[in-house]
Specification:
Layout (H helix, E strand, L loop, with lengths): L2 H18 L3 E6 L4 E4 L1 H7 L3 H4 L4 H4 L5 H14 L3 E3 L25 E9 L5 E10 L1 H21 L10 H18 L3 E8 L2 H8 L1 H18 L5 E6 L2 E7 L3 H16 L3 E3 L2 E3 L3 E7 L7 H17 L5 E3 L5
Parallel strand pairs: 11-12
Antiparallel strand pairs: 1-2, 1-5, 3-4, 4-5, 6-8, 6-11, 7-8, 9-10
Helix pairs in contact: 8-9, 9-10
Length: about 325
Amino acid sequence: MSDASLDLKEFHWLMDMIQSVDVGLIVMDKNYQIMVWNSFMENHSNRSSELVRSKVLFDIFPDTPLAWIRKKIDSSFLLKNRAFSTWEERPYLFKFNNYRPITGSETFMYQNVSIIPLSSVNGDINHVCLIIYDVTDIASQRKELHLMNAKLEQLSHTDAMTALNNRGYWEERLLSEYKRFGRDHNPRTVVIFDIDHFKLVNDTYGHQAGDEVIRKVAKTLQNNQRETDISGRYGGEEFVIILTNVSERNGRIFSERLRKNIESLTIKYDNTEIKVTVSLGLAETNEEDESELAWLNRADTALYHAKDSGRNQSVLFSTIS
């Protein structure tokens, strides 16, 4: 068999491999004209090799991120080095539909892209090869894992009954805000409150009714706070919230609105209507607090003053003589 016959046979093997490999393969010249367009690209783009050959890539796919991919291709030509892009950097280069049964929930194919400069016999770089990898399964699993970890993280600092922050996490945030105050000196106000005569609610209507009261009070707290505020269930029927960038006196505007909204609640449980009120204590950060617990204790002192003074009211620590 002649050398020419062997070369031809090897060429057919090479072309067969290019067509059958399960990755997209594109060869382009310096003018971005397509020279090779394999079966993977035909199947996912619905454009045949005959249709795209000698055409400029960006004319056929106007939605392709032009500046981004051109920069990578031109860099590969200039530096004679490979360039890469992962789905985390950019989800896809070509907006292909996803047909994988395992990751059917994903609308589009996630792609990794390699750009490889192709040397001619004399060493010149006149063409580049783009290899498109379908990594939808990997991307989807990574996204699901990230989502699961985020949910676990959320659950780790969430109170199961109220969906507020639990005591441990809220205390961490209290410490963080105390330290931030030491740096920026912006006011922060802690509000601590509990449900008046809650033991009577449990004794009269039962603990399940008491749980429903706690949930409704917590929901009212969530509805009244800002996104930047940090609320939590501190234990039993006791709640706390850090009002960021809010002075004690302005914090009273919040606490009184919250108090009145809770007072107006009609909590229904087992054909019974329950009315409750809350007492609140407020304390603003100051330079004299030696720790975050000292700050919290001042709010707690104001709360007990509110309860001793008749309940269903807000008391500022600064007003206690």
